[in-house]
Amino acid sequence: MPDRNLQPLLHDLVTTTAAPTTVLSEAGGQVSGAGVEGVFHADARALAEARLLVDGREPEPIGHTPAGPGATRFVSVVRWLGTRIADPTVRIDRVRRVTPGGVAEEITVTSTADVPVRATVTLDLACDLAPMDVVKSGGETGRLAPVEPLVWRAGGITVTARGDGEVSLDRLTWPVDLPTRGAVTLRWQVRIDDPRAMVAAPSRPVEWSRPEVTADDHRLVRLLDRSLDDLASLRLTDGDDTYLGAGVPWFLTLFGRDSIWAARMLLPLGTELAAGTLRVLARRQGTRDDDRSGEAPGKIMHELRRHDTRHQGDRIELPAAYFGTVDATPLWVSLLHDAWRWGMPPEEVAALLPHVEAALGWLGGHSDFVRYVDKSGRGLANQGWKDSGDAVRFRDGRHAEPPIALAEVQGYAYQAALHGAALLDAFDRPGGDRWREYAAALAERFRARYWVDGPQGTYPALALDGDGRPVDALTSNIGHLLGTGLLSPKESTAVAEALASPALSGGFGLRTMSTQDAGFSPLSYHCGSIWAHDTAIVLAGLSREGFGPAAAKLADGLLTAGEAFDYRLPELYGGDDRTDFTRPMPYPAACRPQAWSAAAAVVVLHAALGIYPDVPAGRITLRPSLPLGAVRARGLRVAGATVDATVDARGQATLTGLPTTLTTT
């Protein structure tokens, strides 16, 4: 029996999702009621058990496979039935299809036996309607009694199951009588009615281009195909606007940073998702100062929940609408700028400019560097993307004290200031010069304060602590500076060399912390593990700045990991060395699928093709520098037009289908 108050493990579970509904089950399809298994809907567990039995015994699972977005097929055998030979002659195919607010299953019992088969199939159901934060913390949950057969109700949520079998209070029963070599299909489904859910599925979800890709490295094609299925299943809506829920199961809701990064990564497939994400977050942009929630005027929120949540033994208590993030605000500005460059309609961009000015106002409120500190004492201690409590550490393992100024956040701030200035200039709004001056001054301060000497040479510190001391651990954070413009060419080279060292790049991707730092642990959340989105962001920066071999090493790590995880990249995985393991080790509580992990496949494709558009200026730059061999993608989107891109084995790029208003350079 798992210990209480320990986060349940996820890595062996099978996830089937159509946001905001998810099923987490055992490998055979059983929802046994243990740990985090269950049918979840919008931060509540609708069913805690859906256990299929044949004559009171569990079938023996032999495998499962994805069956498209929101669908999984499970195969098991019933060896005590049928012909008494070594081969199984009775099998069960359990096809699960998840739709927003519902789950339906077809259970096909097939006999190849040379004798008739008679059995009783039952499905036992149980409901607890436990909040997600209670399940995540390993807390105890009790079962609800049905208010009528196969109906449960609590907290405004109604769960209703039905099927074509015989109904009792919490069970469906099917008598099965098969002739020689026969089959029968049994059906059941469950619906969740939750009018107070804080997230909803889109009635008309935004679609993005699904390019037809061929590549010398076939792993890229397979990873992209599975990732696009997963991304489709993570779509949520707010009004008419679509965005991506962050990940299953813990984060299937609006997350500022995650939703922004995922939309930014998907820009080669169209700007509609970016536009929806921008508007959803703009509607919730901060307007007042509130220490408990972290809200401030102009600030972009961190996460949205059904109710206040508690974590880590109640040490952390977050309000339902929480703003404890230091990077979502500049990233929001850069998402709008990049979407504009990819061809987001000018009138949609113009409508968001007041929110740009508010975001820049929040940015300008930081005196020297953009820092964070949890003023409430009950929020997140760390508020960058590495937001675990032990993520910001010195090389000797000591924890940094706030207020903390993360290195990558200064890069985001620099880029957002320049991006904001470009937007203001283009739409004849004042203030552009102020933000260019802000960026120049920030770059000077960064150059004077952040650089340290370590075992891997000279590189930027992870952060400055509350006393202004450089937090000198060597981490992946510095890779996010590439492509922001904050670094000089010489500084970019130093960063690329540090990133390419075996201490950071010796695993299946980019480690979050160097193996030579005292805090390194390959299965820690942020101090040595590998995150797919982090690796993708850094390889994109390396590729954009011309460090192709270093980028290719990281891309190969992601593709190898994708293959190892059945082409569904998890949120994170172990940072063990490739010389010690032939495949990456799972991080046991990682979300899967995760929006920005799935979007990493699009980043690899984009970096390989090297397409950098500036639609307002009428030009597209082609600069492929990620040596992955020949790659072709038919059906990308630039300025609303469908385009085809090809990079041959020599690295020569071509782009066809562009509107006549655009030229390539």
Explain the overall architecture.
The chain is of the alpha+beta class and 665 residues long. It folds into two domains: 14-193, no CATH class; 212-647, Alpha/alpha barrel (Glycosyltransferase). Helices cover 26% and strands 25% of the residues. Strands 6-7-8-9-15-12-11 form a seven-stranded antiparallel beta sheet, with no helix packed on it. Strands 1-2-3-4 form a four-stranded antiparallel beta sheet. A hairpin with a 2-residue loop joins strand 32 (631-638) and strand 33.
Short description:
The chain has 665 residues and is α+β, with helices and mostly antiparallel strands. Helices cover 26% and strands 25% of the residues. Helix 2 (218-233) crosses helix 14 (595-609), helix 3 (256-265) packs antiparallel against helix 4 (272-283) and helix 5 (328-342) runs antiparallel to helix 7.
How are the secondary structure elements laid out?
Blueprint: E1 14-18, E2 21-25, E3 38-41, E4 44-47, E5 49-54, E6 60-66, E7 71-77, E8 90-99, E9 102-111, E10 117-126, H1 132-136, E11 151-154, E12 157-163, E13 166-167, E14 171-178, E15 183-193, E16 212-215, H2 218-233, E17 235-238, E18 241-244, H3 256-265, H4 272-283, E19 303-304, E20 309-311, E21 316-318, E22 321-322, H5 328-342, H6 346-351, H7 353-364, E23 405-406, H8 407-426, H9 432-449, E24 451-454, E25 457-460, E26 463-464, E27 470-471, H10 489-499, H11 502-505, E28 530-531, H12 532-544, H13 548-564, E29 572-573, H14 595-609, E30 611-614, E31 619-622, E32 631-638, E33 641-647, E34 653-656, E35 663-664
Parallel strand pairs: 31-35
Antiparallel strand pairs: 1-2, 2-3, 3-4, 5-10, 6-7, 7-8, 8-9, 9-15, 10-14, 11-12, 12-15, 13-14, 16-32, 17-18, 19-22, 20-21, 23-26, 24-25, 26-27, 28-29, 30-31, 32-33, 33-34
